Amino acid sequence: MAFSKRTVRNIPISGATVLVRADYNVPLSGGKISDGLRIQASIPTLQYLLKHAGKIVIISHLGRPKGRDSSLSLEPIAVRLEKLLGKSVTFVDDCIGDKVVQAVKKAPKGSVVLLENLRFHAEEEANNREFARRIAKDTGARFFVQDGFGVVHRAHASTEAITQFIPSVAGLLLEKECQTINKAMEKPARPLIAVLGGAKVSDKLQVIERFVDIADKIIIGGAMANTFLAYKGHHMGASMVEENQHKTLDKIYLAAHKKVEGSVEDFIILPTDVSVAKTPSQTATRHNVTLGNVAKGDNALDIGDASIERMIEEVSGAKTVIWNGTMGYATVPAFAHSSARLALELASHPNKTSIIGGGDTADFVLGWGEAENFTHVSTGGGAALDLMAGKKLPGVESLLNA
Ligand code: ADP
Ligand code: 3PG
Ligand code: MG
User: Fold this and answer.
1) Which of 103, 111, 319, 361 is most buried as measured by Cβ atoms within 10 A of its Cβ?
2) Against a cut of 0.70, is the pTM above it?
3) Are residues 222 and 329 in the same domain?
4) 360-378 residue pLDDT tens
5) Which are the catalytic amino acids?
6) What is the CATH number of the domain that holds 169?
7) Is residue 401 part of a domain?
8) In this prediction, what percent of the chain has a pLDDT beyond 70?
9) Is residue 400 within 8 Å of 167, Cβ to Cβ?
10) What is the extent of the structural domain holding 347?
């Protein structure tokens, strides 16, 4: 599982100005950062560079603005970085232009400059070469360090085009994400159990297919389980069920039948009961029903209590657990039971390899244990899924080989 790309550790960075692409696409509510995992995770690379390089210039996107939008400014991130790094961070309100040139020139060695949201320029998402060339030129950087794991599945100016203008290597977070996830997928301590939840089968089709190939068992929960159960002919009432997934699920089950000798029901494990309510309101209460007893107006918002016990029993026998997608509508306490039990099970067994991927899932588990309680809480949503699915990531492919 050697990481095949060159990293910050093997380039001559002494004294050099380094441009770092981070993924500071973090949730903001009322201008306040409500989850700092991605910022925290970027610190080791920045500290490494502060020790070994010259000036550090950081770029990132935030949200999906159409043009300049002050509610999506990276300025609050600069304040958080100052706290975490224990030094001042200069914020520049654009990522190209004379202001950038002057700010970097003026910055003393060993200082940190954060540039404004890349996506205030449409050229960023267009993977525009000229825009990338301007960033490289205006920052005067000698090296480009890709450390925004969460965004490397996008081919954008700051993940792909830029690498044509400056020697480009991986940061420590990117390296750790790729190594940890690839190891768990390619050489896991077995049994390997994949726990897959969330909203849609179609979002995660390739990941499910890959796990049919490599996992010892797959546990399905969340609204995704509703789609599987409906496919199996169960009435799901008013639950969220994704339409037109028959062919997809035929394909998954065909592959599963080819792989397992015993019962496929013990390989792809579906809930045997669900917890329902009329609507997912914050004050809703849980009501467990077995399959076959889901009424017309019932909305299955979590796997049921018996299914939770089965899941925990299976997971307790696993050496590696890869979890993506909350097992229920976890932002409502009554339907967070399954996800909470699973998070606690993993957090209280540090000898088990536990890999958590997906934005909502990571947000959820960090409310139930420190990141250190798990082997790896990925900072990637789509990027983690693509890596697990075995897809090539443009922002990694474009870096220099080791
Ligand atoms: P991640 O961001 O970790 O990849 P997803 O976005 O795929 O995870 O899944 C989380 C989403 O799935 C949340 O919005 C959650 O509320 C929704 N969800 C999970 N279970 C259900 C359910 N039974 N009914 C409706 N929505 C659900
Ligand atoms: C993410 O949060 O998944 C990444 O930062 C990428 O953001 P995007 O989905 O807006 O490209
Ligand atoms: Mg999500």
Assistant:
1) 361
2) yes
3) yes
4) 999 999 888 788 899 999 9
5) 38, 200, 359, 382
6) 3.40.50.1260
7) no
8) 100
9) yes
10) 180-388
